[in-house]
Structures are given as C-alpha cells and as structure tokens.
Amino acid sequence: MFEMVILGVLKYTKKTMSLSKEIKQKDFRSEYQKAILNILYTHNYLVTHMSEAFKDFDITRQQYNVLRILRGQYPNPASINLIKDRMLDKMSDTSRIVERLRIKALIGRADSKNDKRSVEITITRQGLELLDKMEGPVDSLEKLLHGISEDETRQLNMLLDKMRGSEVDLEDFAQEELLNQPEKF
C-alpha cells in the first residue's frame, strides 16, 4: 500500500526535483527526519499555490477557511469558538480574521440572544457569492496532486491521519475498498 503512494510520488517527481535536490541535502539523520522535512516542504509548496489562487480575490487562506466554515453552518450562525475549533491553522487570530471579513461585508456579526458574552457570526450573500466565484480556482488546487491517483490519495490521507495519531476509521476504508472492487457475478 505505501509502495503505491511512493510510486505515485515518484511519477510526480520526474517533473520536479526530489526533496534532496530541492533543499540540496543528500544525507538525512533518518527516514523519519527526511519525512518531516518533506512534509514541511510540501506544506509550504501547497500554501504558496493557495495564497496565489486567493490573491486574485483579495482574501487570505485563513479568511477563506473562515468563510468555508460559515458556509458549512449556513443558515445557522457560528460562534468564535466554533470557528476556532474548526480552523485549519490553529494559530490564527480568529477574532481579527472575523473582523476583517466583517469590514469586507462578507460576514455579519451580531450579539447572541442566548448568551450576552457571545457573538453570532453568519456568512452574507456577498460571502457566499465570493465562495462561488472562487470555486474554479479552489478546485484547480487539486491539480497539485495530479501525480498520484485517487486511491493513492486515499492512502496518503490515511497515512497522514495515522502520523498525527488520529483514529483511522477502518470501517469507512473497508467500505470504500468494497465500492472500488469490480462487480463479481
């Protein structure tokens, strides 16, 4: 299974350089160290491309993430804490991001009727329209993984979840494996 992921990555690296060539380092302390550096390098590669795609819309990756979260909640409001919990970048200053989106009229903010210490945040029609306009460029970001198949991508997702110590839902994986088998009659 892991070998299939590696073969897919090798196909992709024919067009670009390997990590060793990119960072001009031949020797690594271990394969674990190399994997960590490779993940960090790949993270920066993806972030750079995402930032470029969002720049045309005058929006940051973190602002996009908040809008995406609010679209998922729509039409219900979300609290700052809910947004913080769902953010991909946990170090983001969510309150500051929300305020910038409010100034751009992409979200609305109102005092909570149930809890006076909390605010309710909702995406506006303008925010929804912006996400619709961004759909093509966001979808094209998936092309960054063009060197690996959907099955390899599924395996990569499982390995990344496993690396973080997340529980891998083997039932979901088994179900997908069954669905991807040719029918036998």
Explain this structure to me?
With 185 residues, the protein is mainly alpha-helical. The protein has a domain of 75 residues: Arc Repressor Mutant, subunit A, CATH 1.10.10. Helix content is 61%, strand content 5%. It has nine helices and two strands. A two-stranded antiparallel ribbon has the order 1-2. A hairpin with a 7-residue loop joins strand 1 and strand 2. Helix 1 crosses helix 8. The longest helix has 25 residues. It is elongated. The relative contact order is 0.12. The N terminus is likely disordered.
Number of helical stretches of at least 4 residues: 9
The residue-averaged pLDDT reads 81
Question: What share of the residues does DSSP label as strand, in percent?
Answer: 5-15%
Indicate the radius of gyration in whole angstroms: 20 Å
Low-confidence stretches: 1-14
**Strand element count:** 2
Reported CATH architecture of the domain at 61-135: Orthogonal Bundle
Share of residues in helices: 55-70%
**Element order, helices and strands?**
HHHHHHEEHHH
Q: Strands of the largest sheet, in order across it?
A: 1-2
Distance between the termini: 27 Å
Derived from helix and strand composition plus strand pairing, the structural class reads: mainly alpha
Largest sheet: 2 strands, antiparallel
**Could you name the CATH topology of the domain at 61-135?**
Arc Repressor Mutant, subunit A
Question: What keywords describe this structure?
Answer:
Arc Repressor Mutant, subunit A; mainly alpha; 185 residues; elongated; 5% strand
